[in-house]
Amino acid sequence: MVTMVNFKGAHYPKSVILFAVFFYLRYPVSYRDLEEIMQERGVGVDHATLNRWVIKYSPLIAARAQVKKRPTAISWRMDETYIKVRGKWMYHYRAVDRNGQTLDFMLSERRNKAAVRRFFRRAIGNNGVPDRIVIDKSGANLAGLEAVNVILKFTGTGQTIKILQVKYLNNILEQDHRFIKRITGRMLDFKAFHSASATLEAIETAHMIRKKQFGANGITAFQQFAQLAA
């Protein structure tokens, strides 16, 4: 069970915090840009506080999004993109279904079998066992998924996943990476792994709202984001 997002003790109204966090995640702005935007709306808050809000509340809202998102297809596409943290490139693993709906995501310092296995165990835990997964030609991705299949074979129903290494089938995911890169492009270089991971989780959540994965018709994207924090 995912608990409610607790704003107790915050020195600003919940609505102000959520607006600032959503605006940062949805649009390519820096914290200093956002500080100026908030001042234009009559809210005096510095960029360091805005950063703390994003890091504190983003993972909680992202966890609720995983529970509340609409069912996804059992044919998956998986790949990784690159995010710079402390001046080093790290790996943001991502998976969508055949329709482009976001399944899961995970930032990793390494691109190896253990990281891939950890990502798939998380994705399966959140979404169930897929029928098939399309990956690229990466040996690490193949080895990690084969390791997951070994575990599946000897546990539960014994169901295993069909693995396809067909590059053109992953085009939908390559296109989907662009939104994430557009938002992170203005963030320059993340200073710490935990802040990068927290921020990426919430950027992904904002992207899921954009893709209408919560079935909320007739309300704005911000209202959907606020509902996830309710």
TrEMBL record:
Keywords (A to Z) from UniProt: DNA recombination, DNA-binding, Transposition
A Pfam family of this chain: DDE_Tnp_IS240
Any one GO molecular-function label of the UniProt entry: DNA binding
Gene Ontology biological process: DNA integration; DNA recombination; transposition
UniProt-listed InterPro entries: DDE_dom, Integrase_cat-core, IS_Transposase, RNaseH-like_sf, RNaseH_sf, Transpos_IS6
PROSITE patterns assigned: INTEGRASE (PS50994)
Gene3D superfamilies, sorted: Ribonuclease H-like superfamily/Ribonuclease H
Residue ranges constituting the Integrase catalytic domain according to the UniProt record: 67-229
Function: Involved in the transposition of the insertion sequence.
Name of this protein: Transposase (Or an inactivated derivative)
